[in-house]
Design goal:
This is Octanoyltransferase. By secondary structure, the chain is α/β, with parallel strands linked by helices. The protein has helices spanning about 25-40, 105-125, 195-200, 205-220; strands at about 10, 20, 45-50, 55-60, 75, 85, 90-95, 130, 135-140, 150-160, 160-170, 190, 230. It contains four helices and 13 strands. The strands form two sheets. Strands 1, 2, 3, 7, 8, 9, 10, 11, 12 and 13 form a ten-stranded mixed sheet that branches. The radius of gyration is 17 Å and the shape is globular.
């Protein structure tokens, strides 16, 4: 099938069992390379799925005092927002799609949120929500715990085409190093994961990726012209 005819979903570091850890800087360069090809019309819309080695990424609004001092690498990136953490047990998705006048950056972010919300509810029984004035997907306060983020979203749009994306906490281990920062600059909320919310063993990251694929296709259908194909890298 012509790659320009539909989404291509790529599982970086897939070893036949699950996604292995991938270096952030190498993946970021891959994003830039893929972005250039999408902009040039050489390939159609892409989604890269990855699990990163431990790293903090600092968006454009990160202030000096918000940077951690625990020795974990910090990479300054060209997306919006502040600082966040990526690491084992977290599924990161990088959709690289061309937007339209009707579907601009804000609508794109809302559609990413909805894809995650629908996946959490439909596949894992986790009631994710939006919180007014905050980006990402959250769990509501329950009288014991405050609002807590399960999925962070940060994007960059260049030449009407997206980069960066979402980071969904799957295993409880994925939230461990958030304690060294104020995630996304929000001090009055917590972080959580699918494992924390269900009390069950975490699903494989590749299974979560496969579950979210149809939701991304549905929400981002403005960039889609035909069915998906998958690539294992």
């Amino acid at each position: 099938m012509n790659a320009c005819d539909g989404f291509t979903f790529t599982y970086l570091g897939y070893d036949g069992a699950d996604l292995t850890e991938s270096d952030y800087r190498e993946t970021w360069q891959l994003q830039r390379d893929v972005h250039a090809r999408v902009v040039a019309g050489e390939i159609g819309p892409q989604v890269l799925f990855v699990q990163h080695t431990p790293v903090y990424t600092a968006g454009k609004r990160t202030e000096p005092h918000e940077r951690p001092q625990d020795g974990t690498p910090v990479v300054d990136v060209d997306r919006g927002g502040k600082i966040t953490y990526h690491g084992p047990g977290q599924l990161v998705g990088y959709p690289i799609v061309t937007l339209t006048r009707k579907y601009g950056p804000l609508e794109y972010v809302r559609r990413l949120e909805q894809a995650v919300i629908d996946t959490l509810a439909g596949e894992f029984g986790v009631p994710g929500i939006r919180v007014e004035g905050r980006t990402g997907v959250w769990l509501p306060a329950d009288g014991v715990r405050p609002e807590r983020k399960i999925c962070a979203i940060g994007v960059r749009v260049a030449k009407m085409t997206t980069m960066h994306g979402f980071a969904l906490n799957v295993a409880a281990t994925s939230t461990g190093l958030f304690g060294s920062i104020i995630p996304c600059g929000i001090a009055d909320a917590g972080v959580t994961s699918i494992e924390d919310e269900t009390g069950a063993a975490p699903p494989r990251l590749v299974d979560v990726a496969r579950a979210i694929e149809p939701q991304l296709e549905r929400q981002l259908s403005f960039a889609l012209t035909s069915g998906p194909e998958r690539a294992l890298v």
